[in-house]
Design brief:
Belongs to the UPF0357 family. The protein is mainly α and 129 residues long. The protein is built from seven helices and no strands.
Length: 129
Amino acid sequence: MLFWLSVFALSTLLVMLTFRYRAVLVPYVPNPVKSFFPSLNHYAPLTTFTAQADAGLTSGNFDIEANIRDGDSRAGLDEQGTQEVLEIMRRERVNFDQARLIRQNRIFAENGIDPSGMPLDAKSVTRLR
């Protein structure tokens, strides 16, 4: 009984770690396996401003194309943030600016800040008399 419980716990841990680090593991998956699981083929890191602009991560308010024209030497936007914004755009069917706003409001909520930028903590000092 204890043996099977240990096997189950170890298997569960392995599945959870694989899910957590799937973005790192996908490039090491062989092509025959990727063809069997088409959802693995959709992940492609966007590491340059050009790739991010081609993926739709630009707008009049957030102009990545200006960085490309100016020859910006940075690698691009934060990879985790771009993936979150792309996921919000896909799931909620909103444009780039709206997805950025949704992501920023979630970050604010996690840190106890309302969407206007005011802290939600009753003890915080927001103005002096």
